[in-house]
Fold ABC transmembrane type-1 domain-containing protein.
Amino acid sequence: MSAPAAPLTGRVPARRSLSVRPDPVALLALPAFAYLAAAYGWPLLVLLGRSLSGPQGISLTPLAQFLSDPFSWRVIGNTVRTALLVTLVCLLAGYPAAVALARARGAVQGLLLLSVILPLSVGVVVKAYAWQIVLRRDGVVSGLLVGLGIWDAPQRLLFTETGLVIGAANVFLPFMILPIYAVIRQIDPRLAEAAATLGASPLRRFLGVTLPLTLPGIVSGIAFVFSLAVSMYVVPSLVIGDRFQTLATLTGRAFLFMRDEQLGSTTAVLLLAVAVAVVVGSTALARRLGGGGQS
């Protein structure tokens, strides 16, 4: 027999509350967010306001004037080209290093990891001055290239764009290695072994298994290095000098030497826009790649 129906009392069942309670753990981030908002957010808003301020108030005239100058486009081209070259060099050198670091075991892995992290404790100014010694005509790089027969006579790499790319890649290389290394460590090595049992060659295993799985780390490393390289100021100032202007060095000159706050604010906002676009785009791409790899 079926159970008797519940008597009708005329009462409406209470609805569940739809209010969302904040996670108490998330409140731990409030001090950091407050510090970032005060130390970085507010100055950036002031900078943005100055870049858009004209004689008649808020206007895009300063930005239009800057972009109408051919010299400005040369500076933007120098900035983007150098950042891309530095990122490419770091990727070509950092990916094999990340693979070797992830595949190493025991004390060897510890030494390799120490060799990647330890240079981060050395200041950028010290590294830039060291590259001034290495890249000069009688430096180590020139002597090595002459010894290999690539150059017939010693040549100077200091104060050249090639020297700038080499010096900057040395500074930012750990920021490419570490994200790729973190992703490779999470890859199950049995996947490559399974591909090998199916007859895949080493190149096929790399292109079909390892490389697609490491794409989130590659995208993160590219975003880190490009964002740092596009906004570097110390390395270009010491390695190549004022003859090669980028957005960062032009911003420094505008504020420190030319006393032109309008120009400095405009170039700083353009530089910030490029960096933010790269970070946001790479984050979305890395999330998409990571989600696609898990499905």
Notes: The mean pLDDT is 85. DSSP finds 14 helices and two strands in the chain.
